[in-house]
Design brief:
With 411 residues, the protein is an alpha/beta fold. It is built from 16 helices and 13 strands. A 7-stranded parallel beta sheet has the order 3-2-1-4-5-6-7, sandwiched between helices.
Length: 411
């Protein structure tokens, strides 16, 4: 079995979990070839150089190759080609432009399919239910091989990057979900529970040293220690950082001695900075910009509390199970997170972390104050054990390998 892994770009800073997965599967002997939509021109993570360079990319599009490969598939199997093209036209979308986007993906997938055939690919696996899975679905249709998808986050089928969702869920040979929430969510969109597997994102736990609460206390002055809060992620609506900055204003009003450090960037950067200025918390909210994986881990080790204020956006966009939560729990840093999507499956109130309602800055501030008042010694230990039991990359990779092998045998 030779598998094509397909996503937008394997070098993106936030896709560390994907690179771990690829390397762990290869260590088990799984033969993987990498395909991407386009290179990340903004720069890729330092640990991604080899994977970025070996990836075969769709863009920039070679128009003559796209035309010739479509003609090849039309001439070699006209009934199958036209049937699949008709399916793209008939995709149950709510606008003509979205159906045309699916048709465009069908045409663009032909040269990818041809390259996969020449490379001996027998199965295509896409990461995310976005354009990656569109190309995977249609490349599989052209080449006559199965495809599957890992669904990392839930979200409305009307979201801009989830065209063809019903068709993808229906045609995928199987689906890997990172949470039970995702299984329930997507099964309600199109019945798929029967072919869905819950497999968490894996972590190299040796890269995350657990700092016991006693170690942290020994390294800080209990009288002068300023509580350090940390937020990590893209500055986009679903991350909910607006509410974290509002919580900072509440904490300042309560005269809590703290510093909030935000790692990341994105389209809402200026908006978040403006909010911090307007709420007069610029002195205690630090925007650190984009950081490397190593730098983020260092920030996490120094933090007292990682806050993950995820929200469901007005368009229905949602988080999956943010990797920053698992990393914080593995490190021994307390977590305050929203009761959102799959998060409650690992952030168990009072057991492994604190949950707050979405869009509730007051509750975030309350949770922070409670953690400061009552240091969660046993909770942090339980959180680490949960990560060890469910997110070890070696265990996760073997689980994925078993799923691929099982479906390869029934072809």
């Amino acid at each position: 079995m030779k598998i094509a892994y397909l996503t937008n770009c394997f070098g993106t800073q936030s896709h560390t979990f994907m690179r771990r997965e690829i390397r762990a599967l290869r260590k088990l002997g799984v033969e993987l070839s990498l395909y991407g939509i386009r290179k990340d021109e903004s720069g890729h993570a330092a640990d991604a150089n080899d994977l970025v360079e070996e990836t075969h990319y769709l863009y920039p599009v070679n128009k003559s190759l796209t035309l010739s490969t479509n003609l090849h598939y039309l001439m070699s199997s006209p009934i199958r080609y036209l049937k699949n093209l008709s399916s793209a036209f008939a995709s149950p979308e709510f606008s003509f432009s979205r159906r045309m986007k699916m048709v465009a993906h069908y045409f663009l997938a032909a040269p990818v399919a041809r390259h996969m055939e020449s490379s001996g690919i027998t199965h295509i696996h896409a990461q995310f239910l976005n354009v990656s899975s569109s190309i995977a679905m249609y490349a599989a249709a052209h080449a006559g091989i199965p495809f599957s998808v890992t669904a990392h986050s839930a979200g409305s089928f009307k979201a801009a990057d989830t065209v063809g969702l019903h068709e993808k869920l229906r045609k995928a040979q199987f689906l890997i979900m990172i949470s039970h929430y995702n299984v329930d969510y997507y099964d309600a969109v199109s019945p798929c529970r029967h072919k869905s597997y819950v497999v968490r994102c894996g972590m190299n736990l040796e890269d995350f040293t657990f700092h016991a609460p006693s170690d942290r206390a020994a390294n800080s002055d209990a009288i002068t220690h300023k509580t350090r809060l940390l937020g990590v992620g893209r500055f986009v609506a679903k991350k909910g950082f607006h509410y974290l900055i509002e919580a900072a204003a509440i904490l300042k009003h309560r005269k809590v001695d703290f510093e909030l450090r935000l790692v990341g960037n994105g389209p809402l950067d200026d908006e978040l900075r403006t909010l911090a200025n307007r709420l007069h918390v610029s002195d205690c909210v630090k925007f650190l910009g984009q950081k490397s994986t190593h730098e983020v881990r260092a920030e996490m080790t120094e933090a007292d509390i990682v806050v993950v204020p995820s929200v469901t956006t007005n368009t229905g966009d949602m988080e999956g199970l943010p990797v920053v939560i698992m990393e914080a729990m593995a490190t021994g840093t307390a977590v305050v997170a929203s009761d959102h999507a799959g998060i409650p499956e690992i952030v168990i109130p009072g057991q492994t972390g604190f949950l707050t309602p979405e869009r509730d800055a007051e509750s975030i501030a309350d949770a922070v104050c409670e953690l400061i008042k009552n240091p969660p010694v046993e909770m942090l230990t339980r959180a680490r054990l949960l990560i060890e039991d469910n997110f070890n990359i070696a265990t996760v990779a073997r689980r994925r390998q078993d799923i691929f092998n099982r479906h390869d045998q029934v072809r």
